[in-house]
Design goal:
Layout (H helix, E strand, L loop, with lengths): L5 H14 L11 E8 L6 E9 L6 E10 L4 E7 L11 E2 L5 E2 L3 E11 L7 E8 L5 E8 L1
């Protein structure tokens, strides 16, 4: 009976490779940031949206963090262009409440947004004056 040394040699090589810091290939997600800005002076609104692409998914991202600071005389939301939005203007809020009167708010999120292929995913900063329900200042960016 003949003994093979190929298998122990392969195991030794694999163990040495792993011990040297090499790891099996894994999918890496890159965190991306979108800055948004709308209005001026007392109506200056800003927002930042952090997100990651979802590997293997078509037209899907995971929102990980949203930061909004409204103007002193505004309320501001960060929204995305949801193809399934019910009523309204086709935009869905990414946070449960707006930032109002110059108060900033940051929220860690674990929200997955997705749309059919061909529908560009976008986020917008939508600011309203305190005495109005109309979007007065906005900035839109593609994810």
């Amino acid at each position: 009976m003949r003994k093979s040394t190929a298998l122990p040699a392969a195991l030794a090589l694999t163990a040495a490779t792993l011990a040297g810091g090499a790891a099996p290939a894994a999918a890496e997600t890159t965190l991306s940031t979108v800055p948004l800005e709308a209005g001026a002076n007392l109506h200056h609104n800003t927002a930042t949206v952090n997100y990651e692409r979802i590997d293997g998914a078509v037209n899907s991202v995971k929102i990980t963090y949203v930061l909004i600071t409204s103007g002193e005389r505004d309320c501001a939301w960060v929204q995305w262009n949801d193809p399934k939005a019910v009523g309204g203007d086709g935009w869905t809020n990414l946070t449960p409440e707006p930032s109002c009167h110059g108060i900033g708010m940051g929220e860690s999120r674990e929200v997955i947004i997705k749309a059919p292929a061909g529908h560009p995913l976008k986020v917008r900063l939508a600011a309203y004056h305190s005495d109005s329900a109309d979007v007065v200042h906005k900035d839109i960016a593609r994810l």
